[in-house]
Amino acid sequence: MAKNTLSFVCQNCGAAYNRWQGKCESCGEWNTLAEEDTSGSVPVSIRSKRKGRTFALESLAGKSPDAPRLSSGMTELDRVTGGGFVRGSVLLVGGDPGIGKSTLLTQATSLMARAGHRIVYISGEEAIAQVRLRAERLGLSDAPVQLAAETSVEDIVSTLSEGAVPRLIVIDSIQTMWTDTVESAPGTVTQVRASAQALIRFAKKTGAAIILVGHVTKDGQIAGPRVVEHMVDAVMSFEGEGSQQFRILRAVKNRFGPTDEIGVFEMTGLGLREVTNPSELFLSERDLGTPGTAVFAGIEGTRPVLVELQALVAPTSLGTPRRAVVGWDPSRLSMVLAVLEAHCGVKLSGHDVYLNVAGGLRIHEPAADLAAAAALVSSLVNAQLPTDAVYFGEISLSGVVRPVAQTPARLKEAAKLGFQRAVLPESARGEAGGDAGLSLNAVNSLTTLVAEIAARGSRRGESGGSAEKNATPARFRRGEG
């Protein structure tokens, strides 16, 4: 008779312990250990001491057919997946509750079903009537999508094995699935891992593509063990702010395509609308003539995106000034502030600094250093930056502005949206060429750009007659405090 093996498993990271303790030593979370029976985590057929079977080995020189892709009917979704869904692939989609994951998948499955493919939508959280209500609100109730409300993995696999193999299967969500091979409650680490393994095995055997919907934690990470993210072929994150209508689908992992592409959607009353030109959307509510705003010409995957950076520098009454940033790396902001103070003489130790990326977009590339520095200095000296200029360039610790990749694509996107000039690194002038038709202001060091903005601020300060309100170039000289 098999002996029961009890262990305490962290519900956040999946680490196992022999006894209960308040804090997980692996991920640092408190009160996440739950008692689980791990004796049944492995099927009986695997635990038995049977002799393994032999299998054929192949060489590297063999030819493998290209994996055909299945288009979702949505350009932005196909962009993130790398051109469509690959047969036998398993994708994990995560996002905050209510962000629009089910809406996105309902629209995609309806379009694919109308194209003649067999699509199955398995809901473990909602009843069939609730899914129908969403489809009716989106105007997709006539799509031939096959629905079911089921949570047993064995029943799902047995049902889907009958008849023609579905081209796409949606499991909403993986945290609600359970399997008979383990005795833990649904949603635990053991159940999530075993359920995902059974569904992945079915996808690889039949060639059906499967989309798993996953919950996220309070930190924005996909809930459950990280081993599930390693098991699937692609991990996509659906991001967005509740107060914004923008939604961004970002690929975190993709075995069949790039991992730096994004898909931009707009949430409307009739569902998600694809945004073919996200630059116009991010700059649609731009406030012209306000100090502390700069337009950054960035690259997301293969697509150039223009977004506005907003900065606010205000005197502080606290001993330690505040540093708040939304949509950018806080460590990157600290580095830019240190370079401004060390090499440009910009005194920010007595000011609170706030930086925001308008529109809810998250920027990861270091090319935004120059635009962030221009916005910060503009807010400090109360000087308006040119409204027809874009900024991009990486700032080194020595204050030198370094070149970035894909300069022609950034300039072409800026010219298409009506911008007249660009502030870019000196070494990127030759790469830019003259096709974009922009007036190029090449800077070699950050000190040059700071001096130009400070001079503009001094003129505003002299006209206003207040030396304290608007900074003068003197405060940027090293010898003066």
TrEMBL record:
In Gene Ontology terms, what is one molecular function of this protein?
Answer: zinc ion binding
Locate the RecA family profile domain: which residues? 66-216
Q: Where is this region: Lon-protease-like?
A: 352-481
Question: What are the entry keywords?
Answer: ATP-binding, DNA damage, DNA repair, DNA-binding, Hydrolase, Metal-binding, Nucleotide-binding, Stress response, Zinc, Zinc-finger
Where is ATP annotated to bind? G95, D96, P97, G98, I99, G100, K101, S102
Keyword Magnesium set for record: no
Q: Which parts of the sequence are annotated with region: Disordered? A: 456-481
Q: Which residues form a coiled coil?
A: none
Tell me where the sequence motif RadA KNRFG motif sits in this chain: 253-257
User: What Pfam families would the database entry show?
Assistant: AAA_25 (PF13481), ChlI (PF13541), Zn_ribbon_LapB (PF18073)
Query: What Gene3D superfamilies does this protein's entry cite?
Result: 3.30.230.10, P-loop containing nucleotide triphosphate hydrolases
Listed InterPro entries:
AAA+_ATPase, DNA_repair_RadA, P-loop_NTPase, RecA_ATP-bd, Ribosomal_Su5_D2-typ_SF, Ribsml_uS5_D2-typ_fold_subgr, Rubredoxin_2
Q: Which GO terms describe its biological process?
A: recombinational repair
CDD domains (UniProt xref):
RadA_SMS_N (cd01121)
Free-text comment on this protein's domains from its UniProt entry: The middle region has homology to RecA with ATPase motifs including the RadA KNRFG motif, while the C-terminus is homologous to Lon protease.
Provide the function of this protein.
DNA-dependent ATPase involved in processing of recombination intermediates, plays a role in repairing DNA breaks. Stimulates the branch migration of RecA-mediated strand transfer reactions, allowing the 3' invading strand to extend heteroduplex DNA faster. Binds ssDNA in the presence of ADP but not other nucleotides, has ATPase activity that is stimulated by ssDNA and various branched DNA structures, but inhibited by SSB. Does not have RecA's homology-searching function. Plays a role in repairing double-strand DNA breaks, probably involving stabilizing or processing branched DNA or blocked replication forks.
User: Which family does the similarity line name?
Assistant: Belongs to the RecA family. RadA subfamily.
Under HAMAP family, the record lists:
RadA_bact
Write the protein's name: DNA repair protein RadA
Q: In the UniProt record, what gene is named as encoding this protein?
A: radA
